[in-house]
Give the backbone structure.
Amino acid sequence: AVIPVSHAPLGPTTLSHNRDGMPIRNTMLGGNRITARSDVHPLKVVVDDVWLAHDSTASVERDGGKSPPFLVNDWSTYLGKLSELSDPANTVGTATVYLQEATGWAKWMGMDRKPGNQVARAVGKKVLSYDEMPDDWRALMAATHPNIVRNPAAALDAPEAKFDR
């Protein structure tokens, strides 16, 4: 069976961090209560590579508690360069992120009360402008969210979307 995919970007969201790198967690996400925690592991330095692992778990209430919560487990690893971090003249370093994620079912899948979950992985890198994003990603954005493509910065001023996953 083919079912339509319902997707609306969540956000914009703002997250602040303490001096130790730990996030200051919000208690609401897209109009729903969220409980989350994070662990930032010690840096690992190998020659010029700096690796930082970050684990995060979250539970987002759905439908005022009538539906099972949306559960998220993220495991991210960031890679940077010690030479860039050590250079006081360098204000922006390069970074690569590797993400593995296990989450509950998205609502559009119609699987809320069935056992199981979704698993995903991704890799990406820091860019400093919209134009540096990959061509295929920008084409998908243009097709699905032309308002964001017209003015990406304005999307940051939009009201937070309702969490509907």
Summary: The first strand starts at residue 16 and ends at 17. Residues 80 and 94 are 6 Å apart (CA to CA). The chain has four helices and nine strands. Residues 135-144 form the longest helix (10 residues).
